[in-house]
UniProtKB/TrEMBL annotation, chains A, B:
Designated name of the protein: NUDIX hydrolase
EC numbers: 3.6.-.-
Native source organism of the sequence: Comamonas nitrativorans
Pfam families xref list: NUDIX, Zn_ribbon_Nudix
Enzyme class: hydrolase
CDD domains per record: NUDIX_Hydrolase
Domain Nudix hydrolase: 45-168
PROSITE patterns linked to this entry: NUDIX, NUDIX_BOX
Length: 182, 182
């Protein structure tokens, strides 16, 4: 299963078949242009926003995925940023939806471009205000892991393992880690 | 003119009229669902990526816009992130396309959520390797401004003025500025 966007075949404004061509407005990229209503459908990378929820004793909250892709593996709570929200609001919403965790959102921690998936993953630090969780349907189990017990071989995504490794190297640091995964 | 996405009316996979409904997969948001082929079209915020190109003498490169919105105002070079590129590649590409500037890309400087536009703007620091520019069709003029001469009243977007103000307060700082504009 891939999240890379499917090629566009029809105009989503009028339903006519699109042409893949230069739009003629100076844009140097081929786009899905409607020959009937002239609407241009663009495809661009999407943001995935999440948190590193940390208990006061240093344990980290991970969620066991109940959905594909990577069913049954462990992830930080994260998901697609939605319209009408900020990065911070999206990260907090996903933490609530996937873990039912009560958090105090902290600083931006990592910003990871993932061109093969046409995504950018952004993780924020978060302090757990409570150790009671109420996972949603996307999560089989929400569990706290001491740093020594992180299931490195069973993590869902490389952006999660990179973010966790950078975080555990320096939990008190203030650097924002910006990098890319090919 | 608004960049907020237009409501979806037709399936871009099969051309059938869509229904706006809960998709039935646990998702709690109304989506554009195709009753014929079951394809779900999502709409999410987009990333706008750009740079703060600085000459060795401290002057900053701004571009006078030759396109709407905000025709004739001054902006930092920036534009929509494209598929198949990282944030850094997108920021460098936009700087080349809009200003024809030869830069050495630096660190991530600002990350600004703009929910009313369904966008996130991300600016990177950049050092100008040359003071010769070759603006593309989107730019009337590319010009260097000393900090005291920045045309604050004629800047294109609030994300540009916020980014420039934070940068000029502390050009050598290492903080990533993460905030939101309503």
């Amino acid at each position: 299963m891939s999240y890379y966007p499917r090629p566009i075949r029809f105009c989503n404004q009028c339903g006519h078949a699109v042409c893949h061509q230069l739009p003629g407005d100076g844009d140097a990229r081929v786009r899905a242009v409607c020959p009937q209503c002239s609407h241009i459908q663009y495809q661009n990378p999407l943001n995935v926003v999440g948190t590193i929820p940390v208990a006061d004793d240093g344990r980290i909250l991970l969620c066991k995925r109940n959905i594909e892709p990577r069913f049954g593996t462990w992830t930080l709570p994260a998901g697609f940023m939605e319209l009408d929200e900020t990065l911070e609001q999206g990260a907090a919403r996903e933490t609530d939806e996937e873990a039912g965790a009560d958090i105090e959102l902290g600083r931006l921690f990592s910003v990871i471009s993932v061109p093969p998936a046409a995504q950018v993953h952004l993780f924020f630090c978060a302090r757990l205000r409570s150790l009671e969780f109420d996972p949603g349907f996307e999560t089989q189990e929400a569990r706290l892991f001491a740093p020594a017990d992180i299931p490195w071989e069973e993590l869902s995504f490389r952006t999660v393992s990179y973010t966790l490794r950078r975080f555990l190297e320096n939990p008190q640091g203030t650097q924002v880690h910006c990098f890319s995964l090919e």
